[in-house]
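testing teh design pipeline on a random one, pls ignore if ur not involved
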């Protein structure tokens, strides 16, 4: 697997002067609560909307379009623009082939509106940049004799409320090192989709 060199997203400007300088050690395993019953599958009407969250959003049918050349920059640009628009705070993220993790506080408008805006606008931008149906990956559908499918997000998202400093710290470690967790790289900072490579774009979680 080849990875493109890091490119600085065009539109990312933190809305305050504090950035995350938290350095996390290589994890020895995934915190048990990450895979426990602490998750909430969020809908637009769910009453729990504010506070710090660990969010996971998947590609439709888990098609691995998120690491196609140029996609990562569009996703990070849109994450930063949505953060600024909603006066939110983004503490960390990791872009994997078929899903994305974000640690954030979505602001007063809530997590559902934040994620709806981010997913809608990022896909709109990607469809402008990549007007032809996506043809990569093994899991595609036959359309007109060609195996193609447009880049799309799966509906909804998983959100875990981080209601203690311990949970927030665990989530940041887990997300930053997710490339290692999935076996893509040996060292977390070598994965091009980790926010460890974009620490100047992050907000301070303290």
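output:
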């Amino acid at each position: 697997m080849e990875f493109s060199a890091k490119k600085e997203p065009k539109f990312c400007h933190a809305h305050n002067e504090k950035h995350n300088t938290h350095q996390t050690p290589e994890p020895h395993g995934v915190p048990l609560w990450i895979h426990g019953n602490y998750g909430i599958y969020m809908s637009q009407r769910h009453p729990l909307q504010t506070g710090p969250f660990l969010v996971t959003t998947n590609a439709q049918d888990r098609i691995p379009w998120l690491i196609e050349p140029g996609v990562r920059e569009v996703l990070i640009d849109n994450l930063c623009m949505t953060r600024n628009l909603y006066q939110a705070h983004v503490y960390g993220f990791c872009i994997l082939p078929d899903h994305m993790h974000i640690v954030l506080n979505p602001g007063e408008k809530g997590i559902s509106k934040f994620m709806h805006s981010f997913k809608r606008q990022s896909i709109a931008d990607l469809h402008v940049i990549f007007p032809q149906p996506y043809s990569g990956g093994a899991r595609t559908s036959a359309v007109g004799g060609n195996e193609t499918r447009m880049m799309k997000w799966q509906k909804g998202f998983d959100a875990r409320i981080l209601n203690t400093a311990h949970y927030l710290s665990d989530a940041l470690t887990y997300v930053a090192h997710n490339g290692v967790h999935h076996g893509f790289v040996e060292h977390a900072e070598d994965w091009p989709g980790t926010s460890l490579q974009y620490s100047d774009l992050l907000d301070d979680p303290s």
